[in-house]
Structures are given as C-alpha cells and as structure tokens.
Design goal:
GO terms for molecular function: DNA binding; phosphorelay response regulator activity. By secondary structure, this protein is α/β, with parallel strands linked by helices. Helices cover about 30% and strands about 35% of the residues. A five-stranded parallel beta sheet has the order 2-1-3-4-5, with helices on both faces.
Length: about 260
C-alpha cells in the first residue's frame, strides 16, 4: 500500500491523541491526519463526513465506545485499535482488524504497525470483525464490583461503592470522596475504574466520575455544561465537561 492514508484518530484522552499525532508525523509520506475526535459520537460524524482510509480507535470511551461505533458503520475502514488494557486478545485483533496498540504506545511498536499498514492490501473482513467484537464483549462482562480496595501502608481498606460520592483524577492519583466526607487515594487510573464500575456511576468529566445516587441537584451551567451538587457531607460542587453533555442528558432524560 503506497498511497497516503487519510487518517482519523478517535480517543477520549487528549494526551493519547497527541501521542499518536507525534508518531504519525514521523511518516508524512504515509499518513494524512484529516480529523480527530474525543468521543464516539463526534468520531462517527467525522467518519461519515470525511470517509477516512484508516482509524486509530480507542475501545473504552464515555458514551459510545469503539465497538459501538464500528457497529454503526456500513463501510469499515482499516482499524488500529488502541487501549490501555490488555484483557483483549491482541493476536485475534491483529488478525481481524489489522492491529492493536497497547497504551502508552512506543515508537518501536508503532513502527511495526506502520510496516503492516504499508503491506495491507485486502479489505477488512466485516463479518469476521463483528463476530470478534461480539465474542469479546461477552468475555469482558464481569460481575459488578461492590467495593474499591485501597492500600494504606500494610493494610487493605475496602470502601463500599454505596459510600462513595465521586472519583476525581488529580495528577498521578485518583481521589475517592465518600458521602461521609472522608478522602481516600488510589493509584488506579480513572479509566480503569470506569471500566469496572456499575451503571450507578456516570462519568461527567474526563477527570470525574460520580455516584448517581449521591447527586443532590443538577444545575445548568454555561457552554452546555452542568453543575453537580453532591449529597455528601461537604455538599461538593462538580462541573461537567462539554463532551459529556449527551450522556448526562440521556441519564436525566433531558434529550
């Protein structure tokens, strides 16, 4: 494959999109980045409008995830899946979609992806990809967790989900605020927590996940945002991100 590939990057994390752009910039004769999106909905709009040859697609995203996006496509471009989790079978995805990159992506690993892309001459197996997605969606379904484990010195503390008001990413850590007003710290990334939490939690910002049952009041804010007033001891105010507007409206039935 010698032509320049029209490329779209879809990932809810800006640093991840920036990293891919830096890696792609090393190969200006092979890739032309024609668009990027921070969520599945915008990504779908860009795909329909620009008809790219290649997608770098994150699997775990708020609202519409990567798998759900693919299911809405009639013509599927070449796909390189990206994820921070290794609970998917990498070999299987490499066979059916082309490739799978585990974040953070190294230059050495990316160069192998480029080599594959340059040799890729066949169309994506639509049925095979759909069957694979169905298989993995079934495999990753796990029983809902009921508590979060916090390491404190030599001890493990179990914080019940029902006692948690919200999670907030701060630098390299995630703060866990309880309804009682207590703070806990975990080193688990917010995105990993989002994957494990039940539907009683909702991500309202790239750095915030709230317990729906702990939301006392919801107020309109400027620029399509909302203020969440939590029912914790501190009556915490949390501000949503604009890109999370759709799923928030869906939750409170404002659409």
């Amino acid at each position: 494959m010698e032509k320049i590939l029209k490329t779209v990057i879809i990932d809810d994390e800006e640093p991840a999109r920036q990293r891919l752009k830096e890696l792609l910039a090393v190969y200006p004769n092979h890739f032309d980045i024609i668009g990027e999106a921070e969520n599945g909905k915008k990504g779908l709009e860009i795909i329909h409008r620009l008809n790219p040859d290649l997608l770098f697609l994150d699997i775990q995203m708020p609202g519409m995830n990567g798998f759900e996006l693919i299911k809405q496509l009639d013509n599927i471009p070449i796909i390189v899946f990206c994820s921070a989790f290794d609970h998917y079978s990498l070999d299987a995805f490499e066979t059916n979609s082309l490739d799978y990159l585990l974040k953070p992506v190294s230059s050495e690993r990316f160069s192998k992806t480029v080599d594959k892309l340059m040799r890729f001459t066949t169309k994506v197996d639509h049925k095979g990809l759909m069957d694979l997605i169905k298989k993995f969606e079934e495999q990753i379904k796990q029983p809902e967790i009921t508590s979060i484990t916090i390491k404190k010195g030599n001890k493990l503390l179990f914080v019940k989900l029902e006692d948690i008001s919200y999670f907030k990413a701060e630098d390299k850590y995630v703060k866990i605020q309880t309804v009682q007003g207590k703070d806990h710290i975990t080193e688990k990334p917010l995105k990993e927590l989002a994957e494990k939490l039940p539907n009683s939690f909702i991500r309202i910002h790239r750095s915030i996940i709230v317990n729906k049952k702990s939301v006392r009041e919801l107020q309109n804010y400027f620029n399509c945002k909302y203020v969440f007033i939590m029912n914790d001891k501190l009556r915490t105010k949390l501000y949503s991100g604009r890109s999370f507007q759709t799923q928030i409206k869906k939750w409170v039935d404002l659409s």
